[in-house]
Structure formats: structure tokens, C-alpha cells
Amino acid sequence: MAAPVQNIISARNVDLTFQTADGPIHALKGVDLAIGKGEFVSFIGPSGCGKTTFLRCIAALETPTGGTLTVNGMSPDEARRARAYGYVFQAAGLYPWRTIGGNIRLPLEIMGYDKAEQADRVARVLELVDLAGFEKKYPWQLSGGMQQRASIARALAFDADILLMDEPFGALDEIVRDHLNEQLLALWARTEKTIGFVTHSIPEAVYLSTKIVVMSPRPGRITDIIESPLPKERPLDIRDTPEFIAVAHRVREGLRAGHQDA
Amino acid sequence: MFKQIPFARPVGMSKIVWSVAAFVAAALIDRSLALLVGVWLVAWHVNSWVAGHESRLARMAAPTLFGLTLLVLWELAVHLFAVPSVILPPPSAIAARMATSGGILWADVVQTVFKGALTGYVMGCGTALLTAIAIDRSTFLQRGLLPVGNFVAALPIVGVAPIMVMWFNFGWESKAAVVVIMVFFPMLVNTVEGLKASEPMQRDLMRTYSASYWQTLFKLRLPAAMPFIFNGLKITTTLALIGAIVAEFFGSPVLGMGFRISTSVGQLALDLVWAEIVVAAVVGSIFYGAVALLEGVLTFWHPSQRE
Amino acid sequence: MRNLGPVLTVVAVILVIWYVAAVGLNAAWARDQAARAGTELGFSELVGQTLSQSRPKLPAPHQVAAEIWQSTWVEETQGRRGLIKSGSLSQRSLVYHAWLTLSATMVGFAIGTGAGVLLAVGIVYNRAMDKSVMPWAIASQTIPILAIAPMIIVVLNSIGISGLLPKAIISAYLSFFPVVVGMVKGLRSPDAMQLDLLRTYSAGPAQAFWKLRLPASMPYFFASLKVGVAASLVGAIVGELPVQQGGLGARLLAGSYYGQTAQIWAALFAAAALAAVLVGIVGAVQKRTLTRMGMAR
């Protein structure tokens, strides 16, 4: 594993407190993290640990109440305006009134690409997520796994260097999820994007990531950062190797430790 | 096996027994009554049999048969009991009147529906839609206007008809004005509701694209609001017709469905009144059906349209 | 009541618009009068004139308020035929006419609701009724059935039935159909799993009705009651148009005959107040019932 060339995302002492009717909630406390170019970083932890919140901070969907956070050397909001990242949500969230092609075209229309360029890119990303030929279908005519692949294609369409994914495969069954994990790794290898990936599955985090960020709740914070020793080339059966099991063990220990002192 | 047979038979038998008993009881009172009861019972048993089938034909046949039964009973009852036509004309007389008075009926439809109701409907719904978009960015205005709108929607707004007749004179303009007021608030409330209907996740998605307010409005929120907008458009079709007809009770030129109904009632020309009512029912169904059809085309993607 | 501020603001804006409109709409007549008298009106005189005409095109809010006060409290307490002096409601008082309308509305609403619930039960439990009657009940929502109102009044009048009953019949059929449609939806709202659960207990149809279908239908029931009571009121008012036998509808029509705009507006506000009270009562009962049943949102 080569050392990261430069920091794409860097967080220093990031804090976020929500004011609610039941009093303040400390969603993030003192988060320090650096993500280099081309890394695949997973955020794992129990619900309420702030993993999704931190991803939303990077995307400027939430604003930290303390600390500094930069994306591509800019503030997250500037990065959002510069369309620096693609975001994949827990649900596919495709617009039912648009075809698959139309959904992928949506960000391209908003960002003002011309018609020919739009068609070009739609065809290319559909190929990338293995959905060629489904361009004219409506979302509700596709399976859950295919819909989620289409939403990934939508995030890839405008070629941002960063891909932020919030439990994208959480609602899918295990077999589909395995398949999509494999495809995601292949896609990452081909496009060399920087990926931030939220999950609550240990095998998924270990299988996908170059770096695993273990978080724990109340207040949401990082308890461990694990650099994965696994090679970049990862067939599915790598999950039976001792190295894999060792990393998974360390993640589990980290989660347990975070749970005890919570 | 054995349990089911004694179970099934008494139920089927008792239905017939009850029917025969009802028929005999009616016959003891009056022979005409017996005929009516007989027709009803036979039709109802046929209908039960039809309704037992699960097919498109049966779905259409059952209500049609029921409607026809009522018409036949109506016709028979009027003749058997010699009901004067100033109280209840038979369906045949109404049909005959519709055939001979086609010109009057059509002129009334043009006056009331096309000039009064439709003009008011388009203006009222259009204004409501634009108002909803105009107050979209102000939560303050929405919090103020929505309760007022919900309140006004429950009021007997047809009561403004005499005022509108006074302001805009007897012509169709005053009817259109009543319709505008009647359809405005239900439409406004539905549209505002609809503009809130997009999911937070989908709005977040538009944020990640750094989309502008208008891009989000046209690409996400208006399409997502379509089912609500059409709900408003459908409710208000009936309101528009009611407004246009009832407003004519307060004064109109010598033309229009409401005018015809109120004056013919006065002249005891009930066949013409019924003819106008049939026309109103048909026009109302067509109006509603047309909007529903458009809804099906534009919101084909919504789960309620996909079966 | 965090909406109170915005609502009051909107109401205040409406009042301001109303005053401005009253000045604008009544200005022509005031100028006309002044021209006949050979005088010229200044702005403040014009405003004063427009807001104090006896038959304005648009009476100002305070004129309507005064009319309401006159035709309720003053009429009943000081009028020769008022409640105090004669012991019964004055026929010239808005209270009397509102009461006529309200009583017809309530009788009709009760009949319509009762019959509507019964038919809904029949539709849910009888396949033939469902298939043959339900489509008509739904279609009735799309047609202006209110148009039959004048005929019912006049025909019943001609066979000697007048007063409350004909109006109540119109109120009844206007509230009937919304209740049927809402109640059928409500009685069918329990899903297959809930019905299957009762089947595992070997519960009979009656038990399924009282323990599951009827409670589950309550939110739908109250929603259609609100629609129904508003429709009942409209029905009673329209039913008062063809024959002048009192009621708010008759007041509206009389006002429009004689150009008594303040009277029209007063009747209109009385009708609005009735509607608000009726819908409010249904809403309060709904809230209490649903809260007690643990179904309130």
C-alpha cells in the first residue's frame, strides 16, 4: 500500500452539537481524520455513533459547530458548490417519473452539460455499473439491487473525484450485497476515486476498505483507525484468509471497547 | 366434507324463502306493490349471481344492472301508482324531453359549464397554483395562510353568489367569480401540501448537486407534488359545477342550467328539471373523468396509478 | 399555537385589503352623489363617504359587524318581537334564521350519517351490494347532486310537506355519500395480517366487526363526518332558496333582492360561524375519541 499522496479530506477536532427539544445532542466530538487521494475509507459503528453525520458534514449537508474540515482544500460548502463529490444515499431515491437514463441525466442537466455530452456520459456510467440496456426502464420496474446500482451510476455521472456512500447496500440481501461489493471494488480500481463509505457490517468494511474508521456513540467519536494490510486485488474468498479475520477481529474489538465505555 | 354440506344449504335456501315470503307479504297488501317487490327480488338475485363472478364484464355489469333495475322500478311505480308528473315524471318522459329539448340543454351547458364553471376553474386553480409557489419560500405566510385556507375550504362559500351577482352582473362572469373563490382554497391547500411531499433525502440529493431553488422546484418538487395537485384538481371539478349552477339561483340571464332548474321547478316542468340533472351528472362525470385521465398520463409513475 | 402570529397577520392583511377594496368599489357611487349635489370630494371625505353608505357595493368590515350586532343582540334584547319582549326569537333576527338552518342541518346530518354507516356496513359485508351500489356511491362524488335541491323543496311543498323536513332531506343526502365512501374505506382499512390474526382466534364476523373493523374505521369516519357536516350546511342553505320560509339561505336571497349588502354579508358570516362551530365540534369529538383509542397522531 503506497502512502497517500495528498489529503483530499482533512478533519481537525470537528465537533457537532444538535439543539433538540430534549436538549443538546453531541453528535460528533473531536473528530480528527485525514483521507488521502484514492483511498477507500469505511466508517463503522453502532447507530448513533455519528458516522452518517460525519459523512454529511463532508458533503456540507450538516455544518460542524467546531473544529476545521476541508475538502479538496476548500470548505465543504465551497466543495459542494464546485460539485466535488457524488453522494449515494441509503435508499436509491430514484425519481419515479424519470427513466433510469433520465435519473442519471438529472445531475448533468442541473450542471448544464450539453445534450450530446449527457447521452455520452449516461451510456458510459450505465456500462460501468452493468446496467446497459436498462436506460429506458422506470425505476419501479427494476429490482432493489439494480436501483441502487443506478443510483451509484447517477453519482458517478459527473465525474467528481470523491464518492460518498451512506450505507448504500444496507437494505439489500446478503447475496446481492456481496455481488455489489465486488463490483464496487472493480469500479474503484478502474476510476481511482476517493471513497467514503458508511456501513454497519464488519465484513463489508474490511473487504472494501484501505482504511477503517471505527466510531462509537454518545458522544460520536473515533475510537480506532485501522490501515488495512490487505492487497488491492481482493477476490471474495479473501474473507477466509487469516489476514482478513485478524482485521475483522480488531474492528470488532474496537466496537466492543467503544460500547463498554459508552 | 360432511360439515360443509348442511352448512351451505340452509343459507342458500333461506335467501329464497325470505324472498318468497317478502313477495307474498307484498301481494297481500297490494298487487302493484307485489309486482315492484317481485321485480326487485328477481333483479337482486340476478345481480348477486353476476357479482359472484370475478371478471371485467361482471365489474361493469353489476352496477349497470343495479341502475337499470332502479330505472325500471321507477317507471313501473310511476305508472302503477299513477304518480302525477308534476311530482315525479317517469324516466321515459325525461328521456323524451331530453330528445326534444336538445337545443335548450346544449345552450345551458355552454352557458353554465363552458363559460361559468370552466373559466372559473382554470382561473381559480391557476391562481391557487401560482399562489402556492409564491408563498413557498415563506414559512411565515404558509403558517398563516394554510389554517385560513383550511378554514375557508369548510365554509359554505356558495353564499358569496349573491355578492358576486351584484358585482359582476347576471352574466357568466359572476358565476366564474363564484367558482374562482370556491376552488381557490382547496387547490391552494393541496398544492402547498404537495410541494412539501418530496422526501428530505431527495432534497439533500439536489443539494449535493448544488442545484438552484428553481432547478429543485422544477426537477424535483413540482413533479413530486403532481399527485397532490391532481387530487385538488379532481375535488374542485365538482365544486366548480356546484358553484356555477347554484350561483344561477341568485340571478342569471334567461339561460343556464341553474336558471333552467329553478324556473322549471317553478313552472312544474319537472321533466325538464330532471333532464338538466341528467345532463349535469353526465357533464360532471366527463369533467372529473377527463382530469383523472390526464392524471393517469402525467403521474403514471405513482404507485396509485400502477395498480 | 405557534401559528397564531402568522394567522393573525394574514387576517389583518385581509381586513386591510377589505377596507381598501370597500373604498375603491364604493367610490364611484360616492363621487356620483357628490357630483349631483354639485360638490367636490376631498380624499378624507371620500373615504368617510365610502365607508358609511347604507347600500354599499362592498360594506366595510365594521358595517358588517354592526349589522351582525344589530340583528342579533340588539334585535333580541330591544326589538319589539325580540326574545326579551315577546318571549320568542324575533323573525328579523339572525339568531332565529341561523337556528332554522342549524336545526335542518343537524337533523339531515344525523339521518345522512346513520344511513351512510348502515349502507357502508352492507357494502363491506355483502358482495352484491359492493359490486352494484359502491360504483354509484363513488360516482355521486363527481356530480353536482346539490342541483336537485330546489326540486325536492318545491315538490315536497306541493304535496304539503314544508318547513324543516325538505331541507333536512337535502342535508341528509349531501352528507350521506361522503360518509358511505369514507366508512367503506375505513371498514376495509385493517390489513390481511390483522384479519388473519382474528381468524387464528376463530373469531366470527361479528367479533371481527366490533373488535377490529369498526375501531379501525374511526379515523376515516371522522374525516368524512367533517366533510359531511359542511356539506349538510350547504345543503340546508341552498334548500332555503326556493321558498322564502326563513333561514340563512332565505336571508341571502332576500338581501340580494333588496340590495341589502350588509344583510348578505351578515348572513354569510353567520353561515361561516355555523360551519366553523360544526366542523370544530366534530374535530373536538374526533380528537377526544382518537386520543382515547390511542389513534391520535
TrEMBL record, chain A:
One Pfam entry name: ABC_tran
Transmembrane segments: none
The keyword ATP-binding belongs to this UniProt entry's keyword annotation: yes
SUPFAM superfamilies for this protein: P-loop containing nucleoside triphosphate hydrolases
GO function term, MF aspect, one: ATP hydrolysis activity
Top-level taxon of origin: Bacteria
UniProt KW keywords: ATP-binding, Nucleotide-binding, Transport
SMART domains xref list: AAA (SM00382)
InterPro entries: AAA+_ATPase, ABC_transporter-like_ATP-bd, ABC_transporter-like_CS, ABC_transporter_ATP-bind, P-loop_NTPase
Transport is among the record's keywords: yes
Domain ABC transporter: 11-238
Family label: Belongs to the ABC transporter superfamily.
Protein name per its UniProtKB record: NitT/TauT family transport system ATP-binding protein
Species assigned in the record: Poseidonocella pacifica
UniProtKB/TrEMBL annotation, chain B:
InterPro entries: MetI-like, MetI-like_sf
Residue ranges constituting the ABC transmembrane type-1 domain according to the UniProt record: 110-295
Keywords: Cell membrane, Membrane, Transmembrane, Transmembrane helix, Transport
Membrane association type: Multi-pass membrane protein
Transmembrane segments: 16-44, 65-88, 118-136, 148-170, 176-195, 228-252, 272-301
A GO CC annotation given for this chain: plasma membrane
PROSITE patterns (alphabetical): ABC_TM1
Chief location bin: membrane
UniProt record similarity statement: Belongs to the binding-protein-dependent transport system permease family.
Keyword Cell membrane appears in the UniProt entry: yes
Key word Transmembrane helix present: yes
Intracellular or extracellular location(s): Cell membrane
Top-level taxon: Bacteria
Gene Ontology biological process: transmembrane transport
Protein name: NitT/TauT family transport system permease protein
From TrEMBL, chain C:
SUPFAM superfamilies given in the database record: MetI-like
GO biological process, one term: transmembrane transport
Main subcellular localisation: membrane
Keywords from the named record: Cell membrane, Membrane, Transmembrane, Transmembrane helix, Transport
Subcellular location: Cell membrane
Any single Gene Ontology cellular-component annotation: plasma membrane
InterPro entries referenced in this protein's UniProt entry, alphabetically: MetI-like, MetI-like_sf
A UniProt-annotated Pfam family: BPD_transp_1
Domain annotation ABC transmembrane type-1: ranges: 94-286
Protein family per UniProt: Belongs to the binding-protein-dependent transport system permease family.
Record protein name field: NitT/TauT family transport system permease protein
Naturally occurring in which organism (per UniProt): Poseidonocella pacifica
Lineage: Bacteria, Pseudomonadati, Pseudomonadota, Alphaproteobacteria, Rhodobacterales
